[in-house]
């Protein structure tokens, strides 16, 4: 029951649910899910600029400053793990509406923090909401998407992380000159799009796949028929829309991820995402700080340079978006890991490289990382069966945050004691490990029906 299968042929008079065309409803759902990832990219990126103001205002120790940068990531680890399981237990829609409330409340509280401890605590709680949105948004998008366009729609969702990061840089540039409290306006600004997203999500129905798994067949078919009607076609109701109509005995069984039929997928989804995020998060969080340390740079120029480099990632995203449902996930992710690993290692082995060469290599990293950068998220939403789909994605997301924490905490230590080159080589080796894991363990979900059970 946990294995992805080829699309079953329709024997009824209508279209199977997994073969429906992309409709206005699917586009709206994808956008609303993508905005959760937008907020993550926005928040993680804007804190990297805000720290340029937080440091002189509070004069924190390096340890406390590191906690500010990593608190939201720790919160995401717990949020994805806990809320992913709750999403399988109580339904996708309930959690979809509630998780961003965490973001709004604690983004505003973080903005009015009076000391470093308050800021760290509120950033942690904000991260819980962000982490929760990963498995929720991914699962809903995957379960409503047509099989032949699922990869494209899920890449669109995770691509909004970069859009959020770019938006945060633009907002930061507008707020840089508002004074020493500019960081407060930066942290509070994310609450505005979050409120709009919460309002938009109220009209999204429950997933038919989850309703069937929980034994609510009539409700499931009503939602599926409405989605088909919105797409302008009739649903194949004779065969249950091509969906498995048998309820699952136990939803959200965390231990199921480590049963014989799923442990290979669990290891693949969690380990590849973890090794990718070690280097990915380290470079993102410290990019403005690194540029600010260059001779002749200003706060404004460091933010602009960081924004330009992130913008190059859109090229890589566009390539993945065009190819993911044609070439498939496995080879795109493998080649992305290979290119990223080689790029990190070459950059690390260069002795005293000219800044222009380093910048060129860094831009290449931004392009190459969009293979594993997008597809680790996509894979985690596709490979698990309905009863533990959000739980599995939550576990993979939590594993990725472990990798992010390693990158965020290890990079300053490596730079201080053995230099930046050693850290870059380490990141490259981990990415090559990610390539090996993908070639060894990854299935190819392209065009296949999601696993039921």
How would you describe this structure to a colleague?
The chain is mainly alpha-helical and 453 residues long. The protein has a single domain, classed as MFS general substrate transporter like domains (Growth Hormone, Chain: A, Up-down Bundle), CATH 1.20.1250.20. The chain is 73% helix and 0% strand. The protein contains 16 helices and no strands. It starts with 23 loop residues before the first helix and ends in a 12-residue tail after the last helix. The mean pLDDT is 88.
Here the CATH topology equals: Growth Hormone, Chain: A
Mean pLDDT: 88
Within CATH, the superfamily carries the name MFS general substrate transporter like domains
Number of strands: 0
List the uncertain runs: none
Spatial extent as radius of gyration: 22 Å
Key traits:
453 residues; mainly alpha; Growth Hormone, Chain: A; 73% helix
Give the gist of this structure.
By secondary structure, this protein is mainly alpha-helical.
Topology:
Elements: H1 24-58, H2 62-90, H3 92-111, H4 116-144, H5 150-175, H6 182-189, H7 191-201, H8 208-213, H9 217-230, H10 263-292, H11 299-323, H12 329-349, H13 355-368, H14 370-382, H15 389-417, H16 420-441
Helix pairs in contact: 1-2, 1-4, 1-5, 1-6, 1-7, 1-10, 2-3, 2-4, 2-15, 3-4, 3-6, 3-7, 4-5, 4-14, 4-15, 5-6, 5-11, 5-14, 10-11, 10-14, 10-15, 10-16, 11-13, 12-13, 12-14, 12-16, 14-15, 15-16
């Amino acid at each position: 029951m946990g294995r992805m299968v080829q699309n079953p042929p329709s024997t009824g008079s209508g279209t199977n649910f997994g073969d429906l065309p992309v409709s206005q409803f699917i586009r709206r759902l994808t956008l609303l899910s993508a905005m959760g990832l937008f907020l993550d990219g926005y928040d993680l990126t804007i804190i990297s600029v805000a720290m340029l103001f937080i440091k002189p205002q509070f004069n924190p120790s390096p340890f406390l400053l590191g906690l500010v940068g990593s608190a939201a990531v720790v919160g995401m680890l717990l949020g994805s793990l806990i809320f992913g399981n709750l999403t399988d237990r109580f339904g996708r829609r309930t959690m979809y509406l509630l998780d961003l409330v965490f973001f709004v409340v604690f983004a505003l509280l973080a903005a009015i923090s009076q000391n470093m401890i308050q800021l760290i605590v509120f950033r942690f709680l904000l991260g819980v909401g962000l982490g929760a949105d990963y498995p929720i948004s991914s699962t809903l998008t995957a379960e409503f998407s047509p099989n032949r366009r699922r990869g494209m729609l899920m890449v669109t969702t995770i691509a909004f992380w970069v859009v959020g990061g770019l938006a945060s840089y633009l907002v930061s540039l507008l707020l840089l000159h508002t004074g020493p409290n500019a960081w407060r306006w930066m942290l509070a600004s994310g609450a505005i799009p979050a409120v709009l997203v919460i309002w938009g999500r109220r009209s999204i129905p429950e997933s038919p796949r989850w309703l069937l798994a929980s034994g609510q067949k009539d409700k499931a078919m009503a939602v599926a028929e409405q989605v088909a009607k919105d797409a302008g076609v009739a649903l194949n109701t004779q065969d249950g829309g091509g969906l498995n109509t048998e309820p699952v005995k136990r939803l959200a069984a965390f231990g199921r991820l480590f049963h014989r039929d799923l442990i290979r997928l669990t290891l693949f989804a969690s380990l590849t995402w973890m090794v990718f995020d070690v280097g990915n998060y380290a470079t993102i969080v410290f990019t403005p700080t690194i540029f600010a340390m260059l001779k002749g740079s200003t706060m404004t120029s460091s933010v602009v340079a960081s924004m330009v480099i992130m913008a190059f990632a859109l090229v890589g995203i566009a390539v993945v978006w065009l190819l993911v449902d044609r070439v498939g996930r496995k080879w795109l992710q493998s080649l992305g890991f290979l290119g990223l690993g080689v790029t990190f290692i070459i950059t690390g082995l260069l002795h005293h490289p000219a800044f222009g060469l380093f910048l060129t290599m860094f831009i290449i990293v931004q392009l190459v990382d969009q293979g594993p950068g997008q597809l680790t998220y996509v894979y985690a939403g596709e490979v698990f069966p309905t009863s533990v789909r959000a739980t599995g994605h939550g576990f993979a997301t939590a594993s990725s945050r472990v990798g992010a924490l390693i990158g965020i905490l290890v990079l300053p230590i490596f730079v201080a004691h053995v230099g930046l080159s050693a850290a870059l080589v380490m990141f490259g080796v981990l990415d090559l490990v990610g390539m090996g894991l993908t070639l060894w363990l990854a299935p190819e979900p392209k065009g296949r029906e999601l696993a039921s059970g």
